[in-house]
Amino acid sequence: MSLNKAVRWMSPMLLVLSAIPFGAARAADEAPAGIRGEILAGIKDAEDKLNQLAEATSEAKYSYRPSKEARTTGQVFMHVAAGNYFLANFAGAKPPEGINLEKYENSLTKKADIQKAMKDSFAHVEKALMSAADADLEKPVEFFGRKMTVRGMYMVILSHAHEHLGQSIAHARGSGLVPPWTAAQEAAAKEKAGKKPEGQKK
């Protein structure tokens, strides 16, 4: 592959990487080495963006849904929280006392309660991941007929969180909200473009 072709091939990827918020990059830097750290960094990236969206979304827009068949914005956030507990349970991390996995997703509707639920669910997953011994990560589990390892289940949790991060971004855009990290990048780019070199007249 020529250098020019390589640059063209890498450009979209570099744009994606440059869009990662500083906080997410810092979380990745602080994560432990190896597969455990890589999974943790991916989960924390989704967590950070979901928490930003949950905070930026007004209480009224928690009931927004793009169609009558779709979940509301609040229900998407609660689906992530319930999914964290449900999937972690397959990895051996039982949900906290009082969490009913069958009813939890539809148990909360207020913004503050949903925000706390989502944060608590990510804390539960991350604590379980970091507490598991290396040998535990290799233990076999069965997930709806699919054989995998505990490590694989944490990768499912990562994938699930990012899947519904994408859904929540679509909800935000549909309700007229620009994702906070995108708004910050656009503001920074606008400010940079508006600055004139020293000595140049305005």
Short description:
The chain is mainly α and 202 residues long. The protein has one domain: Up-down Bundle (Four Helix Bundle (Hemerythrin (Met), subunit A)), CATH 1.20.120.
Number of domains: 1
How many DSSP-defined strands?
2
Tally of contiguous helical segments? 8
Q: Give the strand content.
A: under 5%
Taking the sheet with the most strands, its summary is: 2 strands, antiparallel
End-to-end Cα distance: 45 Å
Describe this structure as you would to a colleague:
- The protein is mostly helical and 202 residues long.
- It has one domain: Four Helix Bundle (Hemerythrin (Met), subunit A) (Up-down Bundle), CATH 1.20.120.
- The protein is built from eight helices and two strands; from the N terminus they run ααααααββαα.
- It has helices spanning 3-18, 22-30, 35-56, 73-90, 111-131, 134-137, 150-174, 180-194; strands spanning 140-143, 146-149.
- Helix 3 runs parallel beside helix 7 (150-174).
